[in-house]
Design goal:
- It contains 15 helices and 23 strands.
- With 522 residues, it is an alpha/beta fold.
- The strands form six sheets. The protein has a ten-stranded mixed sheet with strand order 1-17-2-16-15-3-4-6-5-14, sandwiched between helices. A four-stranded mixed sheet has the order 18-19-21-23. It has a three-stranded antiparallel sheet with strand order 7-13-12.
- Helix 2 packs parallel to helix 4.
- The longest helix is centred in the first third of the chain and has 19 residues.
- About 2% of the residues have low confidence.
- The structure holds S-adenosylmethionine.
- The site of S-adenosylmethionine has 20 residues, from strand 16.
């Protein structure tokens, strides 16, 4: 496979591992409802995705992202964040001295690469990612995705018709579409069956309208389908006598689809249609109840079916009547609903880490209302002026206007778990720390219901304990030993100090890990 190279690659290829782990702080006043499992996070998605890891590693079924397209057009306030001071500062910090030599494509790759790596870690084994992009970075994105997800997991490029009217003053061509690039975390190939599978899409009323019941068949509506086929076989080339007495043969070079015996069986079963006058070339009656109860998704998505940019703007204006341009580049709700419909089952979690106006949250809630589903969403938005006042506000207004029966928690990214002296941040509580420790030890998420006192959880025959009740009080001593569960399992115990001799620890199969030095960095 050809390798993708750009200035700054070396600095960012493993940058996802260096991102500090930050704590999350819930903001009750900006949330809607109590204890919703939907989440809207304010912060740079690099840090936000990292902070989500101990809670959601391999738990996300579907990711949709709509990152900056890198058009170079400075007027795109929200969509071209590569020139925003925050991203510039980040690139300067990570890429260092090379930053002056970076072209805008280098910068874009530096931005997207570590984020895609974290997104992949969050996806379930049978998960999938959909990425909106246009010509500016489509090629680079495809190469980066081939490297990170593996080219064998590429599913398709979807063409989305984003507008209706061609631009007659376009210098070359009028650009009418965006791409949506789709990769599975793992595709079902070479006998592997644990990967992502697509759902069929619901049949539309327009498609069903082609089915009628021209002869009042009690089996329901049907449509005539060709009895002749082009792959010629002499054994199914025979004359047919219509009920009116007319003799019909297949067209030249064609034969019938079924054998003579099968045809006669079908006539008896009233599955052949000769027209109202009973003298037409026969066709097969294809009953709606017999066809696949859904449609295989195609790679071209038309505006009539999933909406376009204009529809998206209308939707957001409908919710922000008090503002002329609440958000410049939203996507239509129907587009995201199509992705959800194809990608997931009821109860799955969706993530959008370039949330903008929060269309993904709106779409999840809307589909849940439509089909009684219980899907959940996580949205991340970096811009201070957008996260609360547009992303969260849009979802909040949609909940009210369309009577959705769910809410969301609004979170800010808080301080890093390790402060500048390498110590655990003082505001970190037991539950937050336990979640992090369990995750770094096991690479799985903690089940909070199973925390019993200091016993944080069990994994692969190891019991994990945390002693963390305040500064200078976290000691592994004899009194603590008496309290721990008797089991054959090895025990890993985190504390500031240990006053027990090594031979006793060995006798009880205990490994002491000192906070903060032996807390792993993820
Ligand atoms: C094109 S918009 C997304 C629009 C969205 N799909 C919608 O329907 O409204 C991209 C958004 O990503 C945000 N963004 C850019 N870089 C980000 C980052 N590093 N972390 C989080 N959000 C970011 C921008 O502020 C912008 O709101």
């Amino acid at each position: 496979m050809p390798t993708l190279n750009w200035i700054g690659k070396e600095a960012v290829v493993n940058h996802d591992k260096e991102v500090p782990f930050k704590l999350l702080r819930k903001v009750k006043s900006a949330s809607v409802g109590e204890n919703s499992q939907n989440l809207i996070m304010h912060g740079d998605n690099l840090e936000a995705l990292k902070a989500l890891m101990p809670f959601y590693v391999e738990k996300i079924k579907c990711i949709y992202i709509d990152p900056p397209y890198n058009t170079g057009n400075e007027k795109w306030v929200y969509n071209d964040k590569l020139n925003s001071p925050k991203v510039k500062k980040w690139i300067g910090k990570v890429v260092g001295n090379e930053k002056e030599d970076l072209s805008r494509h280098d910068k874009w790759l530096c931005m997207i690469y570590p984020r895609l790596k974290l997104l992949k870690d969050l996806l379930k084994e049978d998960g999938v990612i959909f990425i909106s992009i246009d010509d500016n970075e489509h090629c680079n994105l495809k190469h980066a995705m081939d490297e990170i997800f593996g080219e064998e997991n590429f599913v398709c490029n979807i063409i989305w018709q984003k507008k209706y009217s061609p631009q007659n003053d376009a210098k070359y061509f009028s650009n009418m579409h965006d791409f949506i690039v789709v990769y599975a975390k793992k595709k079902n190939t070479n006998g592997y069956i644990g990967g992502w599978t697509r759902n069929l899409m619901n049949r539309s009323e327009k498609q069903n309208a082609r089915y009628k019941n021209l002869d009042d068949d009690p089996r329901g509506i049907w449509k005539p389908s060709d009895l002749s086929v082009k792959t010629y076989s002499a054994s199914t080339d025979y004359p047919i006598k219509t009920p009116s007495g007319r003799i019909v043969n297949p067209p030249a070079g064609y034969c019938w689809r079924v054998t003579k015996e099968k045809f006669e069986e079908m006539v008896k079963d009233n599955r052949i249609w000769f027209g109202k006058e009973k003298s037409n070339v026969p066709s097969i009656k294809r009953f709606l109840s017999d066809v696949q109860q859904g449609i295989v998704p195609s790679t071209i998505w038309f505006r009539e079916d999933v909406g376009d940019n204009q529809e998206a703007s209308k939707e957001i204006k409908e919710l922000f009547k008090d503002s002329d341009f609440p958000f410049e580049t939203p996507k239509p709700v129907r587009l995201i609903k199509r992705i959800i419909e194809i990608a997931s089952q009821n109860g799955d979690i969706f993530l959008d880490s370039f949330a903008g106006s929060g269309t993904t949250g709106h779409a999840v809630l809307d589909l849940n209302k439509e089909d009684g589903g219980n899907r959940k969403f996580i949205l991340v938005e970096m811009e201070d002026k957008v996260a609360k006042d547009i992303t969260a506000e849009r979802v909040k207004r949609a909940i009210k206007k369309y009577d959705y029966k769910d809410g969301f928690e609004y979170c800010e990214l808080d301080k890093p778990l390790f402060n500048e002296h390498g110590n655990i941040e003082g505001t970190c509580d037991f539950s937050q720390f336990a979640t992090y420790i369990y995750f770094t030890e096991t690479q799985t998420n903690i089940d909070k219901k199973k925390i019993k006192g200091n016993l944080v959880g069990e994994y692969n025959n190891v019991d994990y304990y945390l002693i963390y009740k305040g500064k200078n009080k976290n000691v592994l001593d004899k009194a603590f030993l008496k309290k721990i569960k008797k089991s054959e399992n090895k025990k890993v115990i985190y504390a500031d100090w240990c006053s027990i001799d090594d031979d006793i620890l060995e006798k009880y199969n205990i490994e002491f890990k000192q906070i903060p030095y032996e807390v792993k960095v993820y």
